[in-house]
Amino acid sequence: MQRSSYIEDISPRLHIYPSREADQLKQEVLTNHDRRALEAIGRLLLEELDLTSVVPVLVLRGGLMLWEPCREPAGTRPTGIIVPKRDQHEQSPSIAYASLPCVPQAHYLLLDVLIASGRTMDTCLSEIYQRFPDNRIDVAAPFVSSYGRNYLLSRFPSSHIHCIWHAEQIDRQGWMVGPGFDIGDYTLGWTGNYAVWSAEGTAHA
Known about the structure:
The protein is α/β, with parallel strands linked by helices. Helix content is about 30%, strand content about 25%. α3 links the parallel β2 and β3 (about 80-85). The protein is globular. About 35% of the residues are buried.
């Protein structure tokens, strides 16, 4: 994974917030799988943003890790959730469920822990833009891969990305190199099997 956070002039729509504290916490996440360290990383990123001027939208499952860090500065502002679904990691996801506050002229901010291939965030952004074509929709995630970053910046020319690490690497399957765990499983505190179902049917993962 990217060893340290640093500024790089790539695009005016890419906002990087380097943090030595976050770099140290990242090592705790990788070596000890410290869940509190991951939440603290999210807090460091969100403290850099003006959450009082946006409508946060949690991208589940990983985005749940950012709920408490988001709720503290955002207070009682309305918050949305969006739930991507896919049967296999290599597939492009669909949206299983979404609930977004309809706030006039809202600036929406999608929150997730990481952007790897960018497919999940692509699906979420596309879905929201279909319903709110005149609104600004940005993305915030502490970990962003080079591939996912470039992909989203090219696909959504009016969206901005906020992150701490912007040059993470992914493997051929689109997994981020380094963590060794699924971020959704990590967020929910369980690495065993899940029973997953939707209106389309039931699957066991």
